[in-house]
Write a structure and sequence with these properties.
Number of domains: 2
CATH topology of the largest domain: Rossmann fold
Number of strands: 16
Shape: globular
Number of helices: 18
Distance between the termini: 32 Å
Largest sheet: 8 strands, mixed
Length: 413
């Protein structure tokens, strides 16, 4: 507990996607915003963890599934609790929001009684946002919900859509990481004055260009290679396989092309073996390099070793990694999904292509590798999107919400 920390309303962050000693790579973008806000306001974290009695058996059949979490951790001086809630894998998701709220209630109630809960800040609309809306109603505190991209899928689900709508209607403020998600929120009944775009940011002290030759030597890459890189969880959504399938055609144009696959398993799954098999089938072992997971503080290394960044993703809210790549001087090729076009918003930053059009993706990658980019302009765009700017906005919102908690709750009901 940070008793000697900053003054102001006590914010409790609620997010089921949050790093722990068991899953250190989960929800790093949530933690980044959370702890930066915690430098401005008193803060604690509730990170509910799904559980059911036969969970250990499932892990034997599917290693990595439902790994669990500790009860409590201190991270960077902040209390992080991981209350369990009952959840059956792949079924009864309509109950997850309520179950999450009930699982988090004892700790949330204790924080409220201790004067450590004035505003509840949820990440993702469902189930987290729904759980926060229930807790806010029960405990009499205002609720904010940040939409991060999963909401587009949930809004199309006839079972989950009503729960998402209910959560958003109860929230005093709805933050969205992109304008496309704000527009979605408005279609779900959120009044414009309650919806605010607050994108993710980039840490310029962590992401900056390093010596390319030195980083290539460290990674065992030829000094004269053309290097493409993708960073993310090795899952279907991120689209590593969509890039790999284009490499034979790209190598005909760029014979010295190499591709860095940076990442590992994530809570969404693990395609590592599938991707390695694809590389072997195409005979690309000499030019595709699997680095495994890379710590955030070391990620600027493979980015600096590269010539262009590609993310052939199926869905995103606001992909931090795009700004991180630009901060290291890389142009970006990515798909027109979620908020990607809001990040890569000018031709001098990269190229946006329609999702599911391999020919367009191939042409954009080829162009990115051949063009002479203004690396300074790429860096300056990152400098205009720092975390400090985002947290300035958030701090103002939370300070404004807390004094009006009772009036805000009355309006929401």
């Amino acid at each position: 507990m940070n008793d000697n920390g900053p003054a102001g309303p006590h914010v409790v962050v609620l997010s089921s996607l949050f790093p722990s000693s068991v899953q250190p790579g989960a929800g790093l973008f949530v933690r980044e915003r959370t702890f930066r806000l915690g430098a401005r306001l008193p803060l604690a974290v509730l990170a509910p963890s799904p559980w059911f009695p036969l969970q250990g058996l499932v892990r034997r059949l599917r290693p990595g599934s439902r790994p669990g979490a500790p009860v409590h951790e201190q991270q960077a001086g902040f209390d992080v609790w991981f209350p369990r809630f009952f959840s059956l894998p792949l079924v009864l998701r309509r109950l997850d929001g309520l179950a999450m709220a009930l699982g988090a209630l004892p700790r949330a109630w204790a924080l409220r009684r201790a004067g450590r809960l004035d505003v509840l800040d949820a990440h993702f609309g469902y189930p987290d946002g729904y759980a926060a809306a229930c807790l806010g109603h029960w405990l009499g505190v205002p609720v904010t919900i940040t939409l991060r991209g999963t909401e587009e899928r949930h809004a199309r689900d006839p079972v989950l859509r009503p729960r998402l709508v209910a959560a958003l209607r109860r929230a005093q403020r709805v933050f969205t990481v992109s304008d496309s998600l704000r527009r979605l929120a408005l279609t779900l009944g959120v009044e414009p004055q309650r919806a605010r775009v607050v994108g993710n940011g980039v840490d310029l002290a962590r992401f900056f260009p390093m010596d390319r030759a030195a980083e290539r030597a460290r990674l065992g890459l030829p000094a004269d290679a053309r290097v493409l890189v993708t960073v993310g969880g090795l899952v279907e959504r991120k689209g590593f396989h969509r890039v790999i399938e284009l490499l034979p055609a790209l190598r005909k144009k760029v014979p010295n092309l190499h591709y860095l696959v940076v990442g590992g398993p994530s809570p969404e799954g693990n395609w590592t073996q599938r991707l390695r098999a694809q590389v072997a089938q195409l005979g690309l072992q000499d030019c595709v390099h699997f680095t495994g997971p890379v710590e955030p503080d070391a990620l600027r290394g493979p980015l600096s070793a590269s010539d262009a960044f590609v993310l052939a993703t199926r869905n995103e809210g606001w992909a931090n990694v795009l700004l991180e790549a630009m901060a290291c001087g890389l142009p970006v090729v990515t798909t027109r999904v979620g908020g990607n076009a809001e990040v890569v918003c000018r031709p001098d930053l990269g190229t946006i292509v329609p999702f599911g059009e391999p020919a367009a993706l191939l042409a954009a990658i080829d162009d990115a590798l051949a063009r002479d980019w203004d690396r300074g302009a790429l860096r300056r765009h990152a400098e205009a999107n720092t975390w400090d700017l985002r947290v300035d906005d958030l701090e103002q919102e939370f300070r404004a919400l807390a004094p009006a908690a009772n009036a805000s709750m009355a309006v929401a009901r």
